Amino acid sequence: MKVTFPHMGTMSIAVKTLLTELGLEVVPPPPITQRTLDLGVKNSPEFACLPLKLNIGNYIEALEAGADTIIMGGGIGPCRFGYYGEVQKDILRDLGYDFNMVIFEPPQGHWREFYQSLKLLLGNISWTKLYTAWKKGWAKAQALDQISKLTNQSRPHLVKRKEATKIYKEGLELIDQAQSISETEAVVKKIRTDFDSLERIEDFQPLKVGLVGEIYVILEPFTNLHIEEKLGELGVLVDRSIYLSEWIEEHLYLGIFRDNKHRQHIQELAKPYLNHFVGGHGLESVGETVMYAKEGFDGVIHLGPFTCMPEIIAQSILPTVSQELSIPVLSLSLDEHTGDAGYITRLEAFVDLLARKEEKEELII
């Protein structure tokens, strides 16, 4: 059995470690490139979400590399993600590929079905081995999020901002290569030390922008055209609303490993504008925008795949939030036609707007 899975940001590093520790032969899909996108667009329904198209591209490239088993997550609610696995399976089989697909549906209390999927993939594995593998993969997922936060917090303050991306990429490689939890933790300490050693701009107060929206386009730099890097190099401190480890805790394990007070808080903040679940991260996009407004952020950028129903609902509500709470919001829909030049122009214009707004407020004070 040669196992593969879709890319979503840095997820492949943690998932590869987990599956390898479980004794599986792992064939990660190659890094996402234009070829990946072209393969997905060519073989997917025209109005399918961008993540589905990229998943198809991931699978084709992995199957070409020798994979024979695909691991895919399932979903519930109005978001089309719940149909991804079955749709992708039919597309790939129509293309002539021979493979098995194991779909892990959210347990939602039905642990027997979840266990059966796990058993189909792993056979009769001991809980001790499963726990040990989980700890190593989990340590890497947390480390990846920590160096991402360090990078976003440091980049706008640096004299040479491009150095931040260089250090971040080095951190990704070192975490991928780490053989133990202690080695993984040592990488985070090294990255923190590396950032502390760089020359910083004195007395610089960066603009603060929150990033909200659909999880895939937020976590996958290829889809959002490396928005965190671009904003950071414009002197903006970016705070991403969701990280991989948080998503794993909340959506795969239903808050078993941590309480859900933050999620409940976000839902309460969203209530005046949206008081029920609409699928995906639509409700969170509204609540987190309110949160950023209350925390004094200068603006919010809202990302969603073109045709994504939950984010379309959020996008229709965010202008009201923006007006009532006096926080500028830029909504960007992303698909295979999104161009880098126009995208950068919109980001630069938004950052310029935020800077002018801040200057006016200082003059009033």
Structural class, by secondary structure, is: alpha/beta
The share of residues in helices is 55-70%
Percent of residues in beta strands? 5-15%
- N to C succession of SSEs: EHEHHEHEHHHHEHHEHHHEHEH
Q: Return residue spans where pLDDT drops below 50 for at least 5 consecutive residues.
A: none
Largest sheet: 4 strands, parallel
Number of domains: 3
Average pLDDT figure = 91
What general form does the structure show? globular
The tally of strands reads 8
Strand order of the largest sheet: 2-1-3-4
Radius of gyration: 21 Å
Distance between the termini: 66 Å
Q: Assign the CATH class of the largest domain.
A: Alpha Beta
| Total DSSP helices | 15
Walk me through this protein's architecture.
This protein folds into 3 domains: 2-125, Rossmann fold (3-Layer(aba) Sandwich), CATH 3.40.50; 127-203, Receptor-associated Protein (Up-down Bundle); 206-365, Rossmann fold, CATH 3.40.50.11900. It contains 15 helices and 8 strands. The chain has helices at residues 11-21, 34-43, 50-64, 81-94, 111-122, 127-154, 162-177, 181-196, 215-219, 227-233, 244-252, 261-270, 282-294, 309-325, 340-364; strands spanning 2-4, 25-26, 69-73, 100-104, 207-213, 236-240, 299-305, 329-334. Strands 2-1-3-4 form a 4-stranded parallel sheet, with helices on both faces. Residues 11-71 form the DUF2229 domain. GO terms for molecular function: kinase activity.
